Amino acid sequence: MDWTWYLFRFDGRMGRAGFWCSLIFVLCSMILLLLLSLSVMSAVGSEVKSFNLNAEDVFKIVDPATYRWSLLDNVPVLLLKVVATALTLWIDLAIMVKRLHDRDKSAWWLLAYFVLPGLFKQFAERLPDTYWMLPLALASMVLPLWGFIETGFLRGTKGPNRFGPDPAAEVASASSRAGQDWDQGREIEIVPPSASPPGGMHVKRGA
After folding, report:
1. What is the pLDDT of residues 20-34, one digit of tens each?
2. Which three-class secondary structure string do you get for the chain?
3. Confidence band (pLDDT; 50, 70, 90) for 69?
4. What gap in Å lies between CA 1 and CA 20, rounded to an integer?
5. Is 204 left (phi over 0), alpha (psi -120 to 50) or beta?
6. What is the rounded distance in angstroms from the CA atom of residue 165 to the CA atom of residue 150?
7. Does the pTM exceed 0.85?
């Protein structure tokens, strides 16, 4: 299995099984990375009040209000979080793009499922509190949920599409070839019992 393609590349299609396996792998890796980071920071004497890994932190880059000079007080923690967030974001996007390809959809759909809702949540507290914001607030909740349902639970298009062959068909074909390689009828030879007496003896009938 090519994990570099699963986690880091954006070409081709990914089925639902690959999607969930990749997410489980990413979750386990994030937990190990988090534990390792906390251990290293505790060993060097850095005070850690809170440390989390969230791909949505990328939206803080476009929000000047999130910049604080206090961040420079603990540069190692800041650098570690920047690297971990960038890596998590890249892997999440690579997985979702390949699943959208499996659904015969362009990666531009990430604007609706991820980018626009993320920007709205980042600036929601500073937007005007009017009824005109209700549709945007509702969309910011519904679109990510539908994006998760579509990428995690809905089957891709049957047969090849503009992004590549059907991964489900490839898995079925591989299983079929594996079954043909081992033919039970050829491996097990059934020999019928001989009707003649053992030892070649003949029974002489009386006249």
Report:
1. 999 998 888 888 877
2. CCHHHHHHCCCCCCCHHHHHHHHHHHHHHHHHHHHHHHHHHHHCCCCCCCCCCCHHHHHHHHCHHHCCHHHHHHHHHHHHHHHHHHHHHHHHHHHHHHHHHHCCCCHHHHHHHHHHHHHHHHHHHHCCCCHHHHHHHHHHHHHHHHHHHHHHHCCCCCCCECCECCHHHHHHHHHHHHHHHCCHHHHCCCCCCCCCCHHHCCCCCCC
3. very low
4. 15
5. beta
6. 19
7. no
